[in-house]
Design goal:
This protein is α+β, with helices and mostly antiparallel strands. It contains 6 helices and 21 strands.
């Protein structure tokens, strides 16, 4: 039987927001079964923002969630860490609006969660098995979710830059593969974009310490962590955004030239399909299928 998980001990860190440039204090705390991942803005009186697809409000260069007038930004790397390590329940307390960028990857969050220790809880974890293909398209970009006996991702990127060009990656996703092959991949950006992004109030905290930066013909950092670090980071973003559907998936996800808009749209489509015959609840141990309605 596969049971839900949380962390055993609370743990905290301090960093800066990639887009805001502000100092951020973050604390991760254990949560009971069926809580899900819930952000708390302690600077706003403890307003809680669950990590749910219906609360996505903005996807400009990062994924943001809002509840009323309260927002939490750049959530995708931390959410990907919970999803990749199969931690189902946690509270995240923040003293400002943006999750810290750390080194631009999810590896520091993996370290934090492992330091806090993962705790198995006493309630089974629900999985979502895709029975019929789901598809969303935006010009030459698309995301497709198809039936599969395992959770697998195929991602294709294409950039007009000689050091990226076209990259494709296909991986089965397990906690071990996530930790070793996805989590260390850093966010990336182009030097020519920085001035414009900062003019509109974005990437104010960005630097070579928390992103791979490229100019017209070279990478400004010392070296890449993987030859195809760019597509690996897109898989990381995808996992964080897809986690907003609220369930671990059994499906093969195909993405062409994706981004936060495509990813979060599919999370919403999956959530909206819960009462249809396109998905079903499964117990991974017995593969028992049920067509009971979802909350």
């Amino acid at each position: 039987m596969y049971y839900q998980k949380t962390i055993e001990n609370e743990i905290s860190c301090v960093g800066i927001g990639l887009h805001s440039g502000q100092k951020v204090s973050l604390k991760i705390l254990p949560a009971p079964p069926d809580t899900g991942i819930v952000f708390r803005r302690i600077d706003k009186g403890g307003v809680e923002i669950p990590a749910k697809a219906l609360l996505v409000r903005k996807v400009d260069y990062a994924t943001s969630l809002s509840r009323g007038e309260t927002t939490v930004k750049t959530v995708e790397h931390l959410l990907a860490t919970f999803y990749g390590l199969q931690v189902d329940n946690a509270y995240i307390e923040l003293d400002t609006a943006e999750v810290p960028i750390m080194d631009g990857s999810a590896a520091p969050f993996v370290f934090l969660i492992e330091e806090a220790k993962i705790k198995v809880q006493d309630k089974p974890r629900p999985y979502l098995k895709i029975l019929s293909s789901l598809f969303y398209e935006d010009n030459d970009k698309y995301i497709k979710v198809v039936p599969s006996d395992e959770f697998r991702i195929t991602y294709f990127v294409s950039y007009d830059h000689a050091l990226i060009s076209e990259q494709t990656l296909t991986l089965p996703i397990t906690p071990e593969i996530f930790k070793d092959q996805i989590a260390p991949a850093r966010t990336f950006g182009f030097l020519y974009e920085v001035e414009e992004l900062r003019r509109i109030g974005l990437t104010l905290g960005g630097s070579k310490d928390n992103a791979v930066v490229l100019d017209d013909n070279k990478i400004l950092n010392d070296r890449l962590r993987f030859p195809n670090e760019f597509v690996r980071h897109k898989v990381l973003d995808l996992m964080g955004d897809l986690s907003l559907c609220g369930f671990q998936l059994q499906a093969h996800i195909y993405v062409r030239k994706g981004g936060h808009n495509l990813h979060t749209k599919m999370a919403q489509i999956i959530k909206e399909s819960l009462s249809s015959q396109m998905v079903t609840f499964i117990d991974e141990d017995s593969m028992y299928k049920s067509t009971q309605p979802f909350a």
